[in-house]
Specification:
Blueprint (H helix, E strand, L loop, with lengths): L1 E9 L12 H5 L8 E2 L2 H6 L5 H9 L5 E10 L8 H17 L5 E6 L11 H13 L5 E5 L7 H5 L3 E4 L8 H18 L4 E6 L16 H16 L3 E6 L13 E6 L2 H17 L11 H12 L6 E5 L14 H8 L6 E6 L1 H10 L4 E6 L10 E11 L2 E3 L9 E3 L3 E6 L2 E6 L9 H4 L10 E4 L6 H4 L5 E5 L35
Parallel strand pairs: 1-3, 1-4, 4-5, 5-6, 10-18, 10-19, 11-17, 11-18
Antiparallel strand pairs: 2-3, 7-9, 8-9, 12-13, 13-16, 14-15, 16-17
Helix pairs in contact: 3-7, 4-5, 8-9
């Protein structure tokens, strides 16, 4: 019987955001499950569209495989993970791995852009500790988020790393399944791959990593697929766009190529490396001020029947946003965008106020604007249109099956604009969140979302137009506007921009 240990520990860290991820952040249910361990992992993650679920489902098809569940944890992206949270969860995972006895392999569901108070390369450290515990003869593989900042240490202490191939991340479960499929091949063939690894010398803005628009639509489509076909079945290649909001030495895009033939691995990497550098000039960030975008949305909505979707990208909780900034909301109100809907704004007190007065009633108070420096709440008298308990199941391609627990929610109206409120901070990426409050997204004229790209998985199919608003927020989408302290010498923060000169 083949014994394979399975665990996961995910966080995407925006080092420019203030709020830290403490242990409670990993212990709380939201759009993904709370911290779970042992056999409770099976029930806690079942039905979710996650890499660990894809991995478990694939391994369950093997009669000669025993799955050894360790633990799985996720926290909504924000600032750095506390030392306490990282050490408690890493210790739990490794203590369980030690206690379970000899295993034949380890599969880890990681993000790849976790930064803690004491480690800039948290996943590299976790993989190092895992390797020290298992020894060099036990294969260790991991699936990574498309926004992983892949490091030398991560590559060194793993035998294989596989990365999501789509952004929005509609292939998370598939990536987990694919990763353990390759692990099984390595085990049964009693072989290891040669590795080739390359980091670019430029950053990719968050929005432009999207694989449904150019340049990544072609880059990860025709370009990467043709390279992949030249390698398989004897090798594999992955591309990670990196996470430019993590100010660490090894931030940025990476290519990892594996093959039983070292020359094939190197040639494949070099071929895609050329395609990637040829595309650099296309990575110019897009977006306009909230006021300009709302004016455009109002005008466009007069001439089309489909909804105009506005991405409030710089307050995307999926990249470290606090989910409560009010810049876009204020623009919708000021420009009298009647009938427009915005969500989900994270404000537990406003949700409680709405539940206290009930549907059809009003309350005087404020909404949002409490977490981001320089922001301010919207104050007024709000009408309660709908209430919800925040318990719903995602239906879109990315959150399909996710049993969300968002806390008390409410749909409010202020000066003709509808405002969806949640108690917990979560990215607005699934239409089921609005339907939970009686709003059908396809029937709105303007719908504004706290998201950068993931919303496209569910909303792009019916959107008449998609606009990117640059209202102030913690998720600064243009790397040229950030002040980096730790990037390696020679890195460029934008196309045509000279390499930055940081005093190391």
């Amino acid at each position: 019987m083949i014994r394979i240990a399975v665990a996961g520990f995910q966080h995407e860290t925006n080092t420019f955001a203030d709020e830290k991820a403490d242990f409670e952040a990993f212990s709380m249910s939201k759009d993904w499950p709370a911290l779970c361990s042992g056999h409770e992992m099976f029930e806690a993650t079942a039905g979710f569209h996650l890499p660990v679920t894809g991995a478990i489902n694939r391994l369950l098809r093997e009669d000669d495989v025993e799955i050894v569940p360790l633990c799985w944890a996720f926290a909504v992206p924000c600032g750095v993970v506390t030392r306490d949270a990282f050490e408690r969860i890493a210790t739990l995972m490794l203590d369980m791995l030690f206690a379970c006895g000899t295993v034949d392999a380890v599969y880890l569901d990681l993000h790849g852009a976790m930064v803690t108070e004491h480690y800039d390369d948290a996943e590299g450290e976790l993989l190092r500790r895992t390797r020290m515990l298992t020894g060099s003869n036990t294969p260790i593989v991991a699936s990574l988020d498309y926004h992983a900042n892949v490091t030398e240490q991560m590559v060194e202490f793993s035998d294989y790393l596989d990365v999501y191939r789509s952004y929005p991340h509609t292939d998370m479960g598939e990536t987990g399944s694919r990763t353990v499929e390759i692990l099984l091949t390595l085990l049964r063939n009693e072989t290891r791959y040669h590795k080739e690894f390359y980091k670019t010398d430029f950053l990719i803005p968050l929005n432009l990593g999207c694989t449904t628009i150019e340049p990544c639509k072609s880059l990860l489509g025709l370009d990467l697929n043709s390279v992949r076909e030249s390698l398989e079945p004897n090798g594999h290649i992955s591309f990670a766009a990196g996470f430019s909001l993590s100010d660490i030495h090894e931030a940025g895009p990476a290519i990892i190529s594996y093959s039983s033939d070292k020359n094939m691995a190197r040639n494949a990497l070099n071929e895609f490396r050329l395609a990637l550098h040829n595309a650099e000039s296309s990575f110019n960030e897009v977006g306009e001020s909230a006021e300009v975008v709302v004016e455009k949305a109002i005008e466009i909505s007069r001439h089309i029947q489909q909804p105009v979707v506005i991405a409030d990208t710089q307050d995307n909780p999926g990249a470290g946003g606090c989910g409560d900034t009010t810049g876009l909301l204020k623009a919708l109100i000021a420009l009298e965008a009647e009938g427009a809907v915005i969500g989900f704004i994270s404000d537990e007190q406003a949700a409680r106020n709405a539940h206290a007065v009930g549907i059809g009633s009003v309350f005087t108070g404020d909404i949002g604007g409490k977490k981001f420096k320089g922001d301010s709440p919207v104050k007024g008298t709000f009408k309660v249109l709908a209430l919800g308990n925040g318990e719903l199941v995602g239906t879109g391609p990315m959150w399909c099956g996710a049993r969300m627990q968002l806390g008390p929610c409410a749909l409010l109206e202020y000066k003709g604009v509808k405002i969806a409120i949640s108690s917990k901070t979560v990215q607005t990426g699934d239409g089921a969140m609005f339907r939970h409050l009686g709003v059908e997204p396809e029937n709105t004229n303007i719908i504004a979302l706290k998201s950068s790209v993931h919303f496209r998985a569910d909303f792009e199919r019916f959107a008449g137009a998609i606009l990117i608003a640059l209202a102030p927020g913690p998720v600064v989408v243009d790397p040229r506007k950030l002040v980096y302290q730790k990037l390696r010498v020679g890195m460029r923060v934008g196309p045509g921009i000279p390499s930055i000169d940081i005093n190391h």
